[in-house]
Amino acid sequence: MSSHTLTKVAAPEDAVPSRIVPRRRTGQWTAAGLVLILLGLAVNSVARNEAFQWDVVGDYFTSASVLRGLGLTLWLTGLVMALGFALGALLAAGRLSGNPVLRAVSWGYVWLFRSMPILVQLLFWFNIGALYPTLFGVKTVNLLGPVTVAIIGLTLHEAAYAAEVVRGGILSVDRGQIEAAEALGLSRWRRWWKIVLPQAMRSIVPPAGNMLIGTLKGTSIISVIAVQDLLYSVQLVYHRTYQVIPLLMVATLWYIIVTSVLSVGQYYVERHYGRGSERAR
Amino acid sequence: MSAPTTPAAGTGTATDGTADGPAAPMVDVRAVHKSFGSLEVLKGVDLEVRAGEVTVILGPSGSGKSTLLRTINHLEKVDQGWISVDGSLVGYRRSGDKLYELREREILKQRTRIGFVFQNFNLFPHLTVLDNIVEAPVSALKRSRKDVTEAARRLLDRVGLADKADAYPKQLSGGQQQRVAIARALALEPRLLLFDEPTSALDPELVGEVLDVIKDLAHQGTTMIVVTHEIGFAREVADTVVFMDDGRIVEQGAPGDVLDAPKHERTRAFLSKVL
Ligand SMILES: Nc1ncnc2c1ncn2[C@@H]1O[C@H](COP(=O)(O)OP(=O)(O)O)[C@@H](O)[C@H]1O
Ligand SMILES: [Mg+2]
Questions:
Q1: In what residue span(s) does the ABC transmembrane type-1 domain sit (chain A) (predicted)?
Q2: What's domain A74-227's superfamily in CATH?
Q3: CB contact under 8 A, A184 and B123
Q4: Domain spans of chain A?
Q5: What's the rounded Cα separation, in Å, for the pair A77 and A83?
Q6: I want to staple A203 with a disulfide (CB 3.0 to 4.6 A). Which of A65, A169, B17, B77 is the partner?
Q7: For residue B65, which atom of ligand 1 is closest to its CA?
Q8: Residues 6 or more apart whose Cβ sits within 8 Å of residue B143
Q9: Which of A177, A186, A198 has the CB atom closest to B140's CB atom?
Q10: What's the predicted TM-score (pTM) here?
């Protein structure tokens, strides 16, 4: 500190300073201004660029086939997340159990399904008929249509990641919590449901929210097996009309809208499970 | 497994201890051994605690005090010997000369009769103070939530925290949290209370308020075993002081004897450090 500032601060002892003047943040203002200008230019160029064909975007944005595709993307995402986390929770329980066989099998599952690209897995299930022409006395191709294949493939993939997320969440709960619950005579189920899981959720929700948004967009990969999700339904249109860019914009805007809604939801879910922790208040 | 003569053969339910002659001890620990891997932590511990009495366990860190306390509500299994509380074997059922480990459900039921207060409180952070207390009586004893809630509020009043029912544990001081933990243990109306260094995690100025609650319980005739380093508390409240070292009970007796005229060199050495 220089003597210059010292003399400034050293006001007469009895005079209480009347107010506090924050330091100027010129750099911050300049940076913010620059970024806003650049952003404005970018938005302007996108909005005015004829090639985006915003009128076409408007035409198809709420068209029946796009909405059907959006619907499929949404319920498929929900179903895959639910099944994936249910299976993932079982795998995590297996991984943490005292039973060495369950531990090894859970570990092996996660290892295998995290190693396999989801695309490879989908194509594999799609062609499973080559390995097992009939299942339960029914022709495999009839039993496993593209949508079923998509559900199975995405769920198995999701479960491997969910297992790790859930396991991490459980491990984040203090061992003393379980002991206290045991000492109070709470049943195994009650300990898990009322004590461990709600506390584990604090560390499970943020990565799970990430996974949910990833899965929402990740489902678009099933267009390779011709399931009419959001992406595939706009592809069907532009293969006919060649309006590639505006139709991709239709899909993109929908993905952005749904992701935004999910992010808001995640905020509230996090707040719910954060109750009682200092950080949340 | 060697099983010295156990009190209640057969199903191990409470026998009428108070009626016949000298009352059976509330807690009876016999020849208990316990190892973690190759480390023998309890090397043959015998301890009796009579109903209504307060036993304070002293001893250096690592001497096995917590482990002993934890075997009494079967948070740790014993390797040898047995423990009975209120006339029932803890964690086992005797049949012939063998002890069979009970089902989890039966062990949990036994634990509801033994309150345990931890050094780190271990309150459930995601539940309010009231819900922390109400949880076990409702879910483990199947009492009605309404009755339990009323009882919980009375307990909070008793530990001086009537106005904190709706707070979350993190919003309380350490001393307040430990008092809630005591109320939580009391809500099950246990026959026995175990305290594992209840004031060791507290700032010095908060120790008194917790000890006062424990003293209060002692004066009302609650049977308890308290592991602590608070010598003043031991002198004032204990009926029996037990000194443990290296997995054994070295010496036990009235506080005046053990604290003021210890017979063993190791007791003297320990007391000279903590007094
Ligand atoms: N779960 C455990 N696994 C392995 N060692 C343990 C475990 N619990 C306690 N010990 C060891 O047993 C010894 C006695 O521990 P403890 O009963 O906690 O002593 P005290 O409470 O008297 O300080 C220590 O050496 C400790 O490291
Ligand atoms: Mg200890």
A1: 70-266
A2: MetI-like (1.10.3720.10)
A3: no
A4: 74-227
A5: 10
A6: A169
A7: 22
A8: B137
A9: A186
A10: 0.82
Which tokens belong to A116?
A: 């396999």
Task: Decide if A172 contacts B114 (C-beta within 8 A).
Answer: no
Q: Tokens 């203002």 appear where?
A: A29
State the CB neighbour count (10 A cutoff) for residue A43.
10
Q: Which of B35, B39, B41, B43 to mutate to test the pocket of ligand 1 (most atoms within 8 A of CB)?
A: B41
A188 has a chain B CB within 8 A of its CB? yes
In terms of Cβ atoms closer than 10 Å to its own Cβ (0-12, 13-18, 19+), residue B243 is: buried
Strand, coil or helix: what is A226?
coil
> What CA–CA distance (Å, rounded) separates B179 from B117?
10
Per-residue tokens: B196: 């594992």
- The answer to whether B59 and B196 have CB atoms below 8 angstroms apart is no
The side-by-side arrangement of strands in the sheet containing B80-85 is B39-49, B27-36, B80-85, B88-89
Chain A positions touching B136 (Cβ under 8 A) are 184-186
User: And the tokens for B110?
Assistant: 């036994």
In contact, B138 and B148? CB cutoff 8 Å? yes
Tally of CB atoms within 10 A around A61: 17
Report the C-alpha gap between A205 and A260 in whole angstroms.
16
CA B31 to chain centre: 18
Query: And the tokens for B195?
Result: 């305290």
Q: Which residues of A touch B167 (CB under 8 A)?
A: none
Per the CB < 8 A criterion, the answer to whether A222 and A69 are in contact is no
Q: Collapse the DSSP code of A260 into the 3-class scheme (helix H, G, I; strand E, B; otherwise coil) and give the result.
A: helix
Q: How many residues does chain A have?
A: 281
Cβ–Cβ gap B135/A194 under 8 Å: yes
- pLDDT tens for chain A, 281 residues long, are 444 555 555 556 667 888 888 888 888 999 999 999 999 999 988 888 887 888 888 888 999 999 999 999 999 999 999 999 999 999 999 999 889 999 999 999 999 999 999 999 999 888 888 888 888 888 877 778 889 999 999 999 999 999 999 999 999 999 999 999 999 999 999 999 899 999 999 999 999 999 999 999 999 999 888 889 999 999 999 999 998 999 999 999 999 999 999 999 999 999 998 887 764 43
Alpha-carbon dihedral A153, A157, A158, A162, rounded to 10 degrees: 150
Buried b / exposed e along B219-241 (16+ C-beta atoms within 10 A): eeebbbbbbbbbbebbeebbebb
Residue contact B108–A187, C-beta within 8 A: yes
> A254 near A219, Cβ under 8 Å?
no
Cβ within 8 Å of residue A83, ≥6 positions away: A151, A155, A158, A159
